[in-house]
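I am still getting used to backbone structure tokens and would like to learn alongside you. Would you supply a protein for us yourself, any chain you care to pick? Start from the sequence, derive the backbone structure tokens from it, and show both lines together. Go ahead whenever you are ready, and we will take it from there.
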Amino acid sequence: MNMLETLVSGGAFFEGPRWHDGRLWVSDFWRHEVYAVSPSGDTETVASVPGSPSGLGWLPDGSLLVVSMTDNKLLRVHEGETTLYADLSPEGQVGWMSNDMVVDAQGRAYIGTIDFTGQIPLTDLRRVDPDGAVTVVANDMAFPNGPAITPDGKTLIVAESWAQRLTAFTLEPDGALTDRRIWADLAGISPDGIALDSSGAVWVADAGGNRAVRVQEGGHLLDEISTGDLGVFACALGGNTLYLCTAPTYDPAEAAKNHRAQILTTHVPTPALP
């Protein structure tokens, strides 16, 4: 049994968690803010994002990048000032929004786009280079979510939520994505956010199953943590602590009104990547 403890409560909808510099950094979609949370639960507001913050990452100079979801912007937060870093608007794609993100060691940001207007609409994955140029690097993705990069910098893993799988790409030195392949077939699981551990396994937030599962390449389930009646929409690892972004609903109106989202923690035996 994994004992769950509440680190933060009273959120609207937490997403995009990243462990960085000894704290958990996380977006709250419907409170329109980015927070940094200490291991004891002390919370600092680091940015306000009227367009709903989502994915987070850091440039080599230490600047924070934040995806502003509903207006398709990538923002840079540096020394308390928030500025526009890149325009992510998918040209000609009405209803598309930018979502989760990972930033590589060279400062290239990989950002998934989503669309709630169709039955299973296919969108794409975009790369933003350090000069602000935006390039589509993968097409026909079924809700690309929760991207992560292996520690050698050679593989990008993306959760395709509506396809119920984790998809991997070879990350080329120039930032291109090649050799698209299924990393794990997760039939029955709708993967949202993911987190790599030091063994190479992946913790997956099962958005529809009220749980987090740990899987290895190929799809074998290694562990499972249930959260009862709370959905798990994202996760992050800091040391041996697994952080779970949970909420009873995704509905924006109810979430923004009732503030019942929580960040839960539990100890896991295999730690995060260094």
Summary: Helices lie at 252-258.
